[in-house]
Write a structure and sequence with these properties.
With about 70 residues, the protein is of the alpha+beta class. It has one helix spanning about 20-30; strands spanning about 45-50, 50-55, 60-65. Helices cover about 20% and strands about 15% of the residues. It binds zinc ion.
Length: about 70
């Protein structure tokens, strides 16, 4: 199945309505993308699991918010 405009929310098919799928796609994009490290200020921080983040540059592991870093 071709990926739709809703990105990662394409897994929901046509369920739940378009607006809410666009919103969740936006949140998931932020969640899976890289964040700025508070220690070395590089854009190298990935979310490890719920609330846990790790910098790929300086290996710092720290907590943040559940889905995004602060
Ligand atoms: Zn760092």
């Amino acid at each position: 199945m071709a990926t739709k405009k809703v990105g990662s929310a394409g897994r929901f098919g046509s369920r739940y309505g378009k607006t809410i799928r666009v919103k969740i796609a936006e949140i998931e994009k932020r969640q899976r993308g890289t964040h700025v490290c508070p220690y070395c200020s590089k854009q190298q921080v990935r979310r490890v699991s719920l609330g846990i983040y790790e910098c790929r540059k300086c290996r710092a592991k720290f907590t943040g918010r559940a889905y995004t870093l602060a």
